[in-house]
Amino acid sequence: MSSPPQAPGDTGFTSLRKRRGDAVFAGLSLSAGITILVVLFLVAAFLLWQALPALTAAPEEVRGGQGLVHYISPLLFGTVVSALIALVVGTPLAIGIALFISHYAPRRLASALGYVIDLLAAVPSVIFGLWGFYVFGPWLMPTQQGLIEYLGFIPLFGGPASPKSMLVTGLVLAIMILPIMTAVNREIFLQAPRLHAEASLALGATRWEMVQQAVLPFAKSGIISGAMLGLGRALGETMAVAIILSASARFTPVITSSANPGTIAGDIALQFPESSGMDVNTLVASGLVLFFLTLLVNMFARWIVSRRSEFSGAN
Asked: What are the ABC transmembrane type-1 domain coordinates in residue numbering (predicted)?
């Protein structure tokens, strides 16, 4: 049986070149993935090596004189509390801003707002810290005093109110993580199937009902991914926290006073320049805890996204 006629321009050399290009691209992609894993492993190994003296030292040799766990645990608590405040406040704002830009605002206004939101990501964290310390913290004092007066029976609100409180720090962090969360949500909302949205509107749904029926179910995994990116930024923020927060080595649920636990990143930034010997190893050990905390947060986020993906409508 004779072979089928060959199409013009379809030569064996072209096919071989395509296969070689695919092989090169696959090799480069594999190398990039392996490089990321190697770098991650090397960072973890370096932190563990530098933190080993503090991990094996006697409690009285560690900064504070009461052991590594006693030193790091308040910092870990403060890190989680400030990041959670930022996440709880920032996530609804990011979703609302992204929905307004993608489905409600006129095109010109949406473009301008998107540009402004993206521009916020370029503002240095030290600027946010100075603004929070000199402007936002004093401005929030009446609100904090009102929370203490009317909601003082809740353990979160206690006095005396201070512009250097955990609440001020968490709200500034919420503003800092807005750009990245809004950008992710906006792109996900814009990728929602247009036919689903048009079908919902054709059946008589209002615009908000259309968003509920066609946009938000599709974007669930993207919203979670954006929230976890923002949480990772809040967990590792340094300068803004170091400038605003009045830190102390204690556990307290109160977020409106100056008696706050510090954060790991802020403590490293403040203490590292003047530290030496075992103090450096102690700070690196706290950095190792922060490294694994962010790793666990991202692993948890990937697990949630993988569970949601089959119901998102993306496939």
From this structure: 76-301
CB contact set of 175 (below 8 Å; sequence gap of 6+): 90, 120, 128
Alpha-carbon span 64 to 68, nearest angstrom: 9
Question: Helix (H, G, I), strand (E, B), or coil: what is residue 247?
Answer: strand
- For 80, how many CA atoms within 13 A lie in the half-sphere containing its CB? 13
**Averaged pLDDT in 10-residue chunks for the chain of 315 residues:** 51 65 82 90 89 83 79 88 92 92 86 84 88 92 89 84 89 92 88 83 83 85 85 86 80 83 85 82 89 86 68 44
Q: How big is the chain by its Cα radius of gyration, in Å?
A: 25
Q: Which tokens sit at 61?
A: 């040799």
Structural domains of the chain, with CATH: 68-311 (1.10.3720.10)
Return the residue matching tokens 């530098």.
Answer: 50
Q: Which residues pair with 261 in a beta bridge?
A: 248
Q: In whole angstroms, what is the distance from residue 248 CA to residue 253 CA?
A: 13
The values of phi and psi at residue 103, to 5°, are -130, -10
Model-wide pTM > 0.90: no
Phi first, then psi: what are they for 258, rounded to 5°? -90, 0
